[in-house]
Design goal:
The chain is mostly beta strands. The protein folds into three domains: 43 residues, no CATH class; 92 residues, no CATH class; 128 residues, Jelly Rolls. 2% of the residues lie in helices and 50% in strands. The chain is built from one helix and 27 strands. The strands form nine sheets. Strands 4, 5, 6, 8 and 9 form a five-stranded antiparallel β-sheet that branches. The N terminus is likely disordered.
Length: 297
């Protein structure tokens, strides 16, 4: 239990977002498309943006004819729900992406390849300025209390109902070195970077913490294969969950590789993902790793 004596607790809502930026891939057409975006965090969602429109879309979107939707920058947002509101075979929510802002510039985007939308209108209300305390208190904006307010762990995680995230994305430019070092390499890779250890030794390790609800998930790792890469073991809260993930490739550099494995998260709350170099493929020349991000589904 956490106790806040006296005074006040201020809940700052997310700002309602501006319209997203759109970009077309492939040849032009005459079909109009429109999109709205909704900023999301663990305590709720903002109201939907105004519609952004593109008037020269291809009649049928696919891998050769697509539209990229780039949300604006909204401080505090952790994810974005994307809605197709005009055009396409269906209207409604077409996906959710993790917020990704680097040096003040939004890097997150969703590419509409003609996905089937989940029917429904984007929200018009902003629910991120609400604080719920057991006992029925439900106050928008700044909530003032006299005496002592006691919050359980579930309430701290999201208010009243204990809303813990059921998805997460970890970008490895925020990891902490455990053994060896961690070096950021910026280049033309997916998301523009990967990390590696300049010590490139067996046993090099890094970790990152994140919030997630208990459950069974698939853990995905995005990285780059090469002729000098090692094997990675992955630990979740000090429990070995993926063994000997091989990042060696005899053909040379292979970008955008995703390797996945099943994991079980025990308990709602804060967890730690740790990677450890544990040997190498017999054909590999060294113990390097080069990975960019992890996410669960």
């Amino acid at each position: 239990m956490i106790t806040f004596p006296g005074d006040q607790i201020a809940i700052v809502p997310l700002a309602d977002p501006a319209a997203p930026t759109l970009a077309r891939g492939g040849s032009a057409g005459t079909t109009p498309y429109g999109y709205k975006v909704v900023a999301v965090r663990s305590t709720g969602h903002a109201a939907a943006s105004a519609e952004a429109t593109y008037t020269t879309g291809f009649a049928t979107l696919d891998s050769a004819h697509w539209i990229d939707i780039v949300p604006p920058v909204v401080p505090g947002a952790t994810a974005w729900d994307i809605y197709r509101t005009t055009g396409g075979s269906s209207q409604g929510k077409i996906g959710t992406i993790q917020n990704r802002v680097v040096a003040g510039v939004q890097q997150a985007r969703l590419r509409d390849l003609g996905m089937v939308a989940t029917p429904g209108e984007p929200p018009t209300d902003n629910t991120t300025g609400l604080l719920t305390i057991d006992g029925g208190l439900h106050v928008p904006g700044t909530s003032q209390f006299s005496g002592v307010v006691d919050l359980t762990a579930a309430e701290v995680l999201g208010g009243g109902g204990g809303r813990v995230p059921t998805l997460t994305a970890l970008y490895f430019d925020e990891v902490t070195a455990v053994a060896g070092d961690v070096t950021l390499y910026i280049n033309l890779y997916p998301h523009g970077f990967f990390i590696y250890s300049s010590t490139h030794a067996d046993g090099d390790s890094f970790q990152q913490r994140f919030w997630l609800a208990a459950g069974a998930y698939t853990l995905h790792i995005l990285g780059v294969k090469y002729t000098n890469r090692g094997l990675l073991d992955w630990y979740l809260d000090d429990v070995l969950v993926i063994t000997g993930q091989d990042w060696y490739d005899a053909s040379g550099e292979v970008k955008g590789v995703v390797q996945s494995g099943s994991v079980t998260v025990v308990g709602d709350g804060l967890h730690t993902l740790r990677a450890v170099v544990n040997g190498k493929n017999a054909a590999s020349s060294d113990y390097y790793y080069s990975v960019t991000k992890a996410w669960v589904s």
